[in-house]
Amino acid sequence: MLSNAMNLRLLLVEDDPVTQAFLSEAARALPAEVISASTAEEARQVANGQHFDAWLIDAHLPDATGTALLAQLRQSHGQATPALAHTASQVPQQLTALEAAGFAAVIIKPLPADSWRNALRQLLNLPPENKAASSGDWDDVGALRALNGNREALETLRALFSRELPQQYQKIIAALDAADTDTALGELHRMKASCAFVGATALLQAVIALHAQPESAEARAHFIDKAEKILAA
User: How far apart are CA 174 and CA 71, in angstroms?
Assistant: First the structure.
């Protein structure tokens, strides 16, 4: 039986420390208690003898695949607990394989905190989140919600983002100028994660568009406009 929304307990399995911290803090704002594990072995130990309302499993762990871990948890704890897979892969065959393995939902990382919580709400059959309106280049509401209202933590993350953005931006433009699509896509993927963490909404949308169509002059111009607006601030 699903716990009361105030008493949700979630098992998050994620080996990257930064991603684990972000996903955990975002999920706590449901609200929920989040217990984290970095490996499949640690996840099995944590799950032993404990009730969780959902398992949130990284598809690629240092010591196992997410599919293998899910099978082990199912064998030990039954079929009732809903499971969500989160992955950086965008390969359709891999995403389909995760669904076929029994994951009720498959989420592609990185993603904004609100999108992560919406996925969890759907997984747990919870009502939609009431969101205050956010506008402009920065989503303060969503970013603060992801950090449980910790303004100091948000300012620290944004300061780090601002220091790293010029170099990231130059790498992307240089790679596009050199027709080095692989490098450009790699840097854009990293920038997507950074934008999502700090609530840089306008730049995030521009990055997503350019990542989808790196050859598009319109997408490039939009990306340059949004990036240089932040750089000039």
Answer: 45
Name the residue ranges covered by the structural domains of the chain.
5-123, 140-231
Q: Please state, in angstroms and rounded to a whole number, the distance separating the CA atoms of residues 233 and 229.
A: 6
pLDDT at res. 4: 47
Which single residue is written with the structure tokens 């300012």? Answer: 155
CA–CA dist 110, 8 (Å, integer):
23
Positive/negative CA dihedral, 136, 141, 146, 152? positive
3-state secondary structure of 82: coil
Closest listed residue to residue 227, CA positions, set 183, 181, 161 = 161
DSSP classification of residue 49: T
- Helix locations, the chain, DSSP H: 17-28, 40-47, 66-77, 92-100, 113-123, 140-146, 151-177, 181-198, 201-212, 217-231
Task: Report the CATH number of the 5-123 domain.
Answer: 3.40.50.2300
pLDDT digits over 53-102, tens only? 999 999 999 999 999 999 999 999 999 999 999 998 888 899 999 999 99
pLDDT digits (tens, 9 = 90+) for 209-233: 999 899 999 999 999 999 999 998 7
Least confidently predicted of 62-71, 132-141, 162-171 = 132-141
What's the burial of 56, exposed, middle or buried (CB within 10 Å: 0-12/13-18/19+)? buried
DSSP state of 132: -
Q: How far apart are CA 211 and CA 227, in angstroms?
A: 14
